[in-house]
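Chain A, query sequence.
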Amino acid sequence: MATINLGAIKFKWQGAYNAGTAYTVDDVVSYQGSSYICILASTGNLPTNTTYFEQMSAKGTDGADADLLSISGTVQGDIYYNNGGAIARLGAGTSGQALITNGTGANPTWGDAGGGKVLQVVSSGYDSTSFNTTGTTYVTGGTGVTITPSDTSSKILIMATNTGEIDVGRGYYTIFRGSTNVNGSDELVANQVTGINNPFTMIFLDSPSSTSALTYKIAIRSQNSGNATNASRMTLIALEIGA
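Chain A, predicted structure.
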């Protein structure tokens, strides 16, 4: 019965190519970063000689296919990208920043996240102050809510609730920033509700273009001089919205 040498029917790794070594079929060697298998026994023939060797694997391109963990200075949080010619490293940004694409043909960068992010929230808490007017010009009352924007491009979202009572005709409610009616003509109109404290809610997005402290208050006026309009039980919340 025939005897088969199992060791002769598999690839035989011989390490780096040596011109003085006699290679036989199925010997595998490395040469200049690539690997080759012997297909015809010989000595002194380079692995690039296709009569005696076939290539098994090819070396990658230096730089472009680099081992990312071997790039000098790499640390946790780094991002690697194709800069058009090689693999490049983008170091970690600062806390809260977002990765921003600059379009085709440009490299990514870190930048501040924007587009509607809530930067801070301030509340007046419950204000039990009650105030009224019989005039047709707006008057403000209560402590209001004060917020200091971090950037002139920020918007301030104001949410206000209160209860109100009007003895005759109509009463008008709005929000003032200092001496400015931020609601403009969009005032809340309430009809006569004598003896009943009705709840009202107002929401407005203000664009103050300021980084100074801003105080927002509820303001009221009457439709006709001599008619009383009242506001009480107030709560105001101010949110700074990033541009």
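The longest strand covers residues 229-241. The chain is about 0% helix and 45% strand.
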